[in-house]
């Protein structure tokens, strides 16, 4: 078990933990040690209360109806947009509500596909893909930032290419410079790998894409909850994040877009709430963000996500990052000290978030997960929706432990102590 000191932070961890009701639960007779925030985070009482308060006191359809309750609901909904957009450094008109990051990535891919078949205003033509054009992703992408681009390539005749990863988990930027070229139209990549935990070089990748006029799409699911984030300053054209990974509820996320990009992209989903004029033969669409928000919106979820953002803002994202960085260092040191553990993405001096994926020699990841669960420790097992990356490292599954603002050094130590007994339990010699 690691004895590395945890630097003091500005966070009052006892007070933080008291804000999360589920952390008082016991699992299999043990105190819950929740290390699966990379999959979904736990929710503070303030988030739960915000959603319940809306549903019990202000529930009504937004942007529809002139009665008092509808006006109040619309105001709360749009205030939530302003709050969440501000959290990522953007004005509210540059934030589109989605049901999550997967929906946002599909929205981006299908909107570009619609431009490719001549839909949208004349300025949409700059997004059009033609046979032989190239879409560039990386070898480390979550399936949600891979499959939509596979599908777009199939529909348009574009070629899908990928930037490889080094053995230490860092992206091969030399290869990227050779891959991103005059035929590149889209470059889609993750800010932080959900398997490797490494913060990727956004500035360098954006510069390569901009040098050839390609659109950049950033998956910020694993960075928004853990790092101070300013999407406009990063220079990306589009970016997505998911509420349930950043202390918010399920069923809501955001698509950020530069104003000129959103204004030029044609819509993906169509129907009510995103139109100005409709005849039996044609329709005219609202400007962004409403152009991309057809149908019934995730109103209570958006309001609860704004509560999550306010909670993180009160803690301060620099303090959140510093706290989780200390936990990451403690966990990494402890994992390296255990025999038979192979860490993925253990690049020296790489910037990281509090997430480690690893393989236990001689023991299947699912068996490791069940062993830890019996001791009250919740981790993720499997391929983490990143099969190509696991295949790159010769694996089909790993164990992933991921932290959040409510985890403590004791959580890490309980996990490491439990993990130290796995191989002997399964009869694997050291």
Automatic annotation (TrEMBL):
Catalyses which reaction(s): (sulfur carrier)-H + L-cysteine = (sulfur carrier)-SH + L-alanine
Cofactor(s) the protein requires to work: pyridoxal 5'-phosphate
Alphabetized PROSITE patterns for the sequence: AA_TRANSFER_CLASS_5
Domain Aminotransferase class V positions: 33-415
Transferase in keyword set: yes
SUPFAM superfamilies in the cross-refs: PLP-dependent transferases
Family: Belongs to the class-V pyridoxal-phosphate-dependent aminotransferase family. Csd subfamily.
Full protein name: Cysteine desulfurase
Species of the source: Microbacterium helvum
């Amino acid at each position: 078990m690691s004895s590395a000191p945890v630097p003091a932070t500005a966070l009052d961890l006892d007070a933080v933990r008291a804000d999360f009701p589920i952390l008082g639960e016991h699992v299999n007779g043990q105190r819950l040690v929740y290390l699966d925030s990379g999959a979904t985070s736990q929710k503070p009482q303030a988030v739960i209360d915000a959603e319940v308060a809306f549903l019990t006191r202000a529930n009504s359809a937004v942007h529809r109806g002139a009665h008092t309750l509808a006006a109040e609901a619309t105001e709360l909904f749009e205030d939530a947009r302003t709050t969440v957009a501000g959290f990522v450094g953007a004005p509210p008109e540059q934030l589109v509500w989605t049901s999550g990051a997967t929906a946002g990535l599909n929205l981006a891919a299908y909107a570009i596909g619609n431009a490719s078949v001549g839909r949208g205003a004349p300025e949409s033509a700059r997004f059009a893909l033609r046979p032989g054009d190239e879409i560039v992703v990386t070898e480390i992408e979550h399936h949600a930032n891979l499959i939509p681009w596979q599908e777009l390539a199939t529909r348009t005749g574009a070629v899908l290419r990928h930037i490889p990863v080094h053995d230490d988990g860092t992206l091969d930027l030399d290869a990227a410079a050779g891959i991103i070229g005059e035929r590149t139209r889209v470059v889609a990549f993750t800010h932080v790998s959900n398997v490797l935990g490494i913060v990727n070089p956004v500035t360098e990748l954006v510069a390569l894409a901009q040098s050839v006029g390609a659109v950049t799409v950033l998956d910020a699911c694993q960075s928004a909850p853990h790092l101070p984030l300013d999407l406009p300053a990063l220079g990306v054209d589009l970016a997505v994040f998911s509420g349930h990974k950043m202390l918010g509820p399920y069923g809501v996320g955001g698509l950020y877009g530069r104003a000129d990009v959103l204004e030029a992209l044609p819509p993906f989903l169509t129907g009510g709430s995103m139109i100005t004029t409709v005849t039996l033969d044609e329709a005219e669409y609202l400007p962004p963000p409403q152009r991309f928000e057809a149908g019934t919106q995730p109103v209570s979820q958006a309001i609860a996500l704004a509560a999550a953002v306010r909670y993180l803002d009160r803690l301060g994202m620099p303090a959140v990052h510093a706290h989780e960085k200390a936990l990451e260092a403690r966990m990494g040191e402890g994992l390296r000290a255990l025999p038979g553990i192979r860490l993925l993405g253990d690049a020296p001096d790489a910037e990281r978030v509090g997430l480690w994926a690893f393989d236990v020699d001689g023991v299947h990841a699912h068996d490791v997960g069940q062993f830890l669960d019996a001791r009250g420790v919740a981790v993720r097992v499997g391929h983490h929706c990143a099969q190509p990356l696991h295949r790159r490292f010769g694996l089909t599954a790993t164990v992933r432990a991921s932290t959040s603002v409510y985890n403590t050094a004791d959580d890490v130590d309980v996990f490491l102590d439990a993990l130290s007994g796995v191989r002997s339990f399964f009869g694997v010699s050291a």
